[in-house]
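quick one, 496 residues, struct below
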Amino acid sequence: MALVHKEVIKLKNSLSFKNQAFINGNFVDSVSGKVFEDISPVDGNLVTSVAECDIEDVNNAVSAARTVFEKGSWSRMAPNKRKKILFKFANLIKKNILELGILETLDVGKPISAATGDIAACAACLNWYAEAIDKLYDDVAPTRDNIIAMITKEPLGVVGAVTPWNYPLLMAFWKIAPALATGNSFILKPAEQSPLSALRVSELAMEAGIPEGVFNVVPGFGPTAGKALGMHMDVDKLGFTGSTEVGKLFLKYSGESNMKRVSLECGGKSPNIVFADAPDIDLAAKNAADGMFFNSGQVCDAPSRLLIEKPIKDEFLEKLIEYSKPWMPNDPFHPDTAMGSMVDKAQTARVLDYIETGKTEGAEIIAGGKQVNKDSGGYYIEPTIFKNVNNNMRIAREEIFGPVLSTIEFDGADQALEIANDTDYGLNAMIWSNDLNKVHKIAKRIKSGKVLINSMSDGDMSVPHGGYKQSGFGRDKSLEAMGQYTQTKLTWIELK
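---
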C-alpha cells in the first residue's frame, strides 16, 4: 500500500490503545492489578501502561481455552466453516493494516513501510493456512480384508506461544494460523516490548467469529507469564521464538511439568558466503547490506557473518560500504525510512557494547559504529561493518541482534565450509557462486535449516523455516507446521 506521511501521523495521533489482557472473549485487568509501562523506542516516550499478567491470569486463559476446546465449538467445527472464519479474520487484518502497522512502529521502532508489510504478511499467512484446512486428508493403512485401520490427525488441545518483539505479529501468526487451522485453542504471550498489535488483533479475531476462549492474549514478562505457560499442566504445546538461552528454559519447563510438546526457533549467526565466481558481485554486496541492516539487524537469521573469498575482498567491501549508506536510521514514521530504531534502551546498550568489544578484539570498523539521532529521545545505531574479523572473536560467535556485520575472509571452498559450520547455531546460510557443483556440495554439508543460493530471501509460505543445533528445532511455515499442532491417532477396526 502507498503510504503518505501526513496520513500516517494523523492516524497515529488519533489512536486509542487496547492495554488489558484478552481472556475468554473479554478485555480484563490483570488479577493483581499490576501494569507495566510500554515505552516507544522512536522517541523514548510512554505509549500506555499494559496489564502485567502472571500465574493466575495464565490459569484463567488456560481454563477458558480448555473449556471451549472440550466443548468443540471450534475444535470440532466443520473444516469449511472454520476456513471461512479464518478468511474473514485475514480480511479484517488487511482492513486494519495501517493501524496495526502504526502500533508495531510505536512499540519497536520498525519503519512504517516495513511494519505494514509485516501485517500484510500476517494476513497472507492466515489465508494460506485457511486454504489448507480442507485440502489435507487422513490415511487408511493397507491391511487384510477384515481390518479397517484409519490414521487420523487431531488437534493437540491448548497451545501456548511466547513470541519475540522483532516481528511482533508475524512471528505470532506463524504459530497462530496453523494452530487455529487445525482446531486448537490458543494463548499468546507477546514480548513485553510489543504487546499492542497482539491485543488489537484479539478484537479482530472475535469480530471474525472465532468463539470466545479460542484466542487469548496475556501480556507480561517472560519469567512470570511466559514461565507460567511453560509450566502449566494443562497446556499441550508451547511454541517459542526468541533467544537460545530462553528456549532452553522451555525445554526444562516441559520436563518439570506435563512433558508438553515444545517447538523452538532460537538464535542465529548465519554465514553469507561470497565466492569470487559469484554471478553478480554488485547484487551480492547489495543483498549483504540489505539482509543485514533490514529491521536494524534485529533478525534471527540475518547474514551477520559475511565470508568473502580473498581475491574479491577489497572490491566487495568498497561496494558493501556504499550499499550500507541508504540504511542510515531515520524517523520510523516516514514512509521513505529504510531503518528505524532499536527496540529499546537495553538492546541499544547491548549492541554498543558489542561494537566496543569488536574494536578491543582487534577488528576494524569501516562503516558506522555509533549511536545517532540522540536528540530524538529514541534509540538509533548506524549500520556498522567490521573487517579483519576472525571466527574466534565474540562478534563472530555471539548473536548481537543489531546492525553489526562481521566480515571474515577465506581461501577456497573447504575453508569457507569450515568457518560456516564453526558455530553453535544453524538457522540460515547463503552461498553466492556460479559453480553449481561447488554450491551443491557445500549446501549438503552446511549444518543449517536453510541454505539460500544466490538469494537473500525465502519469503514464501510454502517452505519451512527453522534451524539446526542451538538455533532450535521445529518448523514454522509450510504444511510441516500444521503437523506440529496435531497428534496422530490410529483407529483399528476388526470386522467379523
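The domain at 5-266 is CATH 3.40.605.10 (Aldehyde Dehydrogenase; Chain A, domain 1).
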